[in-house]
Design goal:
By secondary structure, the protein is of the alpha+beta class. It is built from five helices and seven strands; from the N terminus they run H-E-E-H-E-E-H-E-H-H-E-E. Strands 1, 2, 3, 4, 5, 6 and 7 form a seven-stranded antiparallel β-sheet that branches. Helix 1 packs antiparallel against helix 5.
Length: 171
Amino acid sequence: MVQVKQQGKQNAYMTNLMISLLLRFPEIMSLHFDMPQDEAKFTFLLKGKLEQEYNNFTVLLHDALAAFQDLTGKEFRVKAALQRSGKISLLTLISGTSCLSLEGIQLLCGLVRSSFAAALIHDAEATAVLQDDDLLQQEEMITYLLNHSTGTNKDSLLAFREAGKVYIFDK
């Protein structure tokens, strides 16, 4: 009986974490947390053919992750992939769930925003809703949830945004 309640509490933490991440970072189109595989997948939607920008991004990402590790002493590995589908490209960044931190996620989203500024598709409704105080509150919540939700959950959750709404599914 206690395990069932704990399982539910961990799912609630993960669900709230995913909602908070999508609210705080409107450029993230979907998240997939595969806890048994220790994998977090961030997907960004981009307009156009971006092979050269992607190549520049991967170099910048490698350098930024090395600097991040030097400054924090924390290992943070990220694999990047770009998949083109017609006029849209999907940028996928994959890292371990156990090494996620707010600072690392901010770094990834900042690199994506700066590298693909003209091509990045983001949720304009989410951007307009959050004020500075709300952003700070979301960041505090994300930090808390990252510290309390990763590593113990055995589920795989998928979250994505569509038309200003966030949907979460248990895979």
